[in-house]
Automatic annotation (TrEMBL):
Name the record gives this protein: ABM domain-containing protein
InterPro entries (alphabetical): Dimeric_a/b-barrel (IPR011008)
Domain of life: Bacteria
């Protein structure tokens, strides 16, 4: 499985209107493209950052959809008051769901970069060291790890039942994150806490 992420810097005043268009118009249109396996949308209302993720059954399906999604992406940008977007393509390496994300769920995303040769080691570390710790945290819903092997980049996502559960996990997450970065010789590029607006990614368990 593969995913494409589109990150935009939205006008905070336009986020609600933009969400409605993405959910009601963009999501159904993307879902109709051959090979699509769903979509999710995360937002940070304070900063205006939004991340839309589309899942694909194969790398070929993802690449073949590139032109088809351009007008949809442009419409989403306009509806959110954004002037452009940053697009990345990832391989799905790990997916684990404890239970479905309820209304009000939030997620923490962590981006790391390092030696491309350590990609498989990063996957093993996530499965054996990170995921078991996440599962112990109160309010944990699900987790995933996506990788860009060529660039040596990974992004891990941990979803929680509520903003309160997410915030309560911060200290423990910080310790895990730093230990993993040290072990892999990786750099922590960014950390973002976001509201899960909707998550309809039909990606199988991969843990």
């Amino acid at each position: 499985m593969f995913v494409r992420t589109t990150e935009v810097q939205a006008d905070p005043a336009k986020i609600d209107d933009g969400i409605a268009i993405v959910r009601d118009d963009i999501f159904p249109a993307v879902s109709g493209i051959d090979g699509c396996a769903g979509m999710s949308l995360l937002v940070n209302r304070g900063s205006g950052r939004c991340i839309a993720t589309t899942a694909w059954h194969s790398e070929d399906a993802m690449r073949q959809s590139a032109e088809s999604v351009v007008p949809l992406r442009n419409r989403a940008e306009r509806s959110l008051g954004a002037t452009g977007s940053e697009v990345h393509q990832w391989e799905v390496a790990v997916v684990h769901r404890d239970h479905a994300t309820p209304e009000g769920a939030c997620a923490r995303l962590t981006w790391l970069s390092g030696d491309p040769e350590t990609a498989d080691r990063a996957i093993d570390t996530y499965k054996l060291a990170v995921l078991p710790r996440l599962q112990e945290m109160a309010g944990f819903c699900s987790s995933s790890l996506m990788i860009d092997r060529d660039a040596g980049r990974v992004v891990g996502t941990a979803a929680f039942d509520s903003r309160e559960a997410l915030e309560a996990s911060r200290d423990a997450a910080q310790g895990i994150r730093q230990r993993v970065a040290d072990e892999l010789g990786a750099t922590i590029d960014n950390i973002e806490e976001m509201e899960i607006v909707f998550a309809h990614l039909h990606v199988p368990e991969m843990a």
